[in-house]
Amino acid sequence: MATTALARDTNGSTNDRDTLFMLSGIALMVFGAGLILSNPVVQKYMGRMGVGGLALGALPDLERYLRLRDM
User: Fold this and answer.
1) Which of 24, 55, 59, 71 is the most exposed place for a label (fewest CB within 10 A)?
2) pLDDT digit string (tens) for 3-17?
3) What is the pTM of this model?
């Protein structure tokens, strides 16, 4: 079975490949957030609500998630 140099190093580990997948996932999330935030409707909504209002709106959901996780 042939493997690429990126997939396995001399010790047989896949650290390079895992790092590549992690960084590409982060890049896709940042790109997706940029696409969403560049929409004029979203910009107007975020401008009206503000960052503080967004954080206050997310707190009840976060508290509920943490309570469910403690069960």
Assistant:
1) 71
2) 555 555 555 566 888
3) 0.48
